[in-house]
Amino acid sequence: MEVEVKLRLPDSKSHQLLSTILSPFHLKTYLQENIFFDGPNTELSTNLAALRLRFYDLDSQCVLSLKSKPTITNGISRIQEEEEPLDPTIGRACVAEPWKLLLMADSHSSSSSRIMKRVREEYGVDEKKGLVCLGGFRNVRAIYEWNGLKLELDETLYKFGTCYEIECETSEPERAKILVEELLKNNGIQYSYSKSNKFAIFLSGKLPE
User: Fold this and answer.
1) Predicted confidence band at 128 (pLDDT cuts at 50, 70, 90)?
2) Which positions ≥6 away from 137 have C-beta within 8 Å?
3) What positions does the domain CYTH occupy (predicted)?
4) Are strands 2-9 and 192-193 parallel, antiparallel or unpaired?
5) Which among 70, 81, 28 is positioned nearest to 48, based on CA atoms?
């Protein structure tokens, strides 16, 4: 179970101000490309699941993930997540031909994937049905180590606009939320509790109000 604090920033000005404030605590910045897949009859998304390939820094690495059963309340997100590393070359081939992902559901495959086995068995998406590439979005993620917390400052670029958000994965979400909210308030940065995850925003085709 992945548990995160998710606070939305209203605009690029707020994002830049927070980035400047946190700059002494900066660890690294990733350029991420997120590509999503579903069955031809939305077998995954209608069951609140998301199958994703994430590429980092121009294909330096690739991660296959399956997220399911998301909830988000008062800025605290909980979601079941499973991840597996994947060769970026194979990942790109799967973007071009999504059916290749399903070949990894075979336990005898050289690139056998527990995630793809779950997609086949739990969601009924098999080689006969195939997979559909939904497209995706890019994200610039700056990571900071601050007050014992790992903060992720995101600039998410959808085709229909840009969102700004600060996230913190933690086993103590209430405590982390208090600390992050104090950081924002003490520096005059407006924020609101995120009400949807990035995939839900992507599917909606519009920025949250």
Assistant:
1) confident
2) 34, 156, 157, 158, 159, 198, 202
3) 1-206
4) antiparallel
5) 70
